[in-house]
């Protein structure tokens, strides 16, 4: 059974014509039985009357959290397929006409203030990594890029503004200098340039420095910089930045700073974006020099902060792309560290993936540990005790029985075990 895609919250997609369009698509999606994005994409490909050909990632992105009004061709294609599967059996042409009105209202709605940092055109990371013409790329002085930004703005060359703004931050400039540049642009009535520079900073390694400087000045843009970094910074850049973070001497986990960064940088990402990174060479070649621990920190961050339905969709896509080992490591992190655990197990059960509930619970058992140094009996039994207390309260009685049986089998298969494991079974007379 496919994992259902949920309607974005009002915090994720503000009320207005675009939300009305996406809400209508979601109602049609539910009427069609909540098919998987892959099923929808495959059916569209076979539909000769479809104007668009959205991939399953595009279908998921439109339903989950569109950054801007989707192309009509893709909306039309999705409506045709979903309407044909709807239990209401609506007239497909009438549905297409109805949705064209919703789409047109969203497309023609007054544009959001382009001074907002989250405006799509200057929050797309691809705009900021676009190569510059050789003559521009050869420049090194910050004032040269400032002058070019003004020139390209005068000439209406908006396409060059993001990569020029990104070049201003390379080699790393101080946040104070770039804030001065932004303020000068604002004073000259060039708000577009000021915000292009700000977003470029949010997508650079100096995003934390920029946010801190803005906060020290009492500027509201400080939070906007962090939000943009968390939502839009390419994961390859996040990975590189995490590798440069010094371990926290006050923490027992050397990758604690990296894990905190990963938690902020992945919680709002679409599953397909995470899968693309997990299959990338940057991640797959992670070995030695602390990189393996960094990979564990990333998977643990995803396991502890991602939504339940997102996790199910993520693991679906991970299996489809051959990431079996990474899926196993993700389930281990969920079992060992996600609190509460019951909502994930309930989501698996509700989606008829009960074998995976067992897979999660098995990873609480110490014999499956990858690293022996992590087999601390007191810590592990405390975790199992907490889960045994949590599951029946959530009505997950079969899962409780499964975990008890796993613990009993482990305990009985070893002649000498710490008394803590036996104490877990005593109340149940096992």
Quick one: how many beta strands? 0
Which residues form runs of ≥5 with pLDDT under 50? 111-121, 368-373
In N-to-C order, the SSE pattern is: HHHHHHHHHHHHHHHHHHHHHHHHH
The main β sheet shows up as: none
Distance between the termini: 35 Å
- Overall pLDDT: 84
What class would the helix/strand composition place it in?
mainly alpha
The fraction of residues assigned to DSSP E strands is under 5%
Q: Helical proportion?
A: 55-70%
- What is the gyration radius calculated from CA atoms? 25 Å
Q: Which outline best applies? A: globular
Q: Count of helices?
A: 25
What does this molecule look like?
- The chain has helices at 17-31, 37-45, 56-64, 72-85, 92-108, 125-128, 134-137, 142-154, 161-168, 175-187, 191-202, 207-216, 221-232, 235-244, 256-266, 271-278, 281-284, 291-305, 308-320, 324-337, 342-350, 354-362, 377-393, 397-412, 419-425.
- The chain has 430 residues and is mainly alpha-helical.
- Helix 2 crosses helix 4 (72-85) and helix 15 crosses helix 18 (291-305).
- The two termini are 35 Å apart.
- Residues 111-121 and 368-373 have low confidence and may be disordered.
Helices and strands in order:
Blueprint lengths: L16 H15 L5 H9 L10 H9 L7 H14 L6 H17 L16 H4 L5 H4 L4 H13 L6 H8 L6 H13 L3 H12 L4 H10 L4 H12 L2 H10 L11 H11 L4 H8 L2 H4 L6 H15 L2 H13 L3 H14 L4 H9 L3 H9 L14 H17 L3 H16 L6 H7 L5
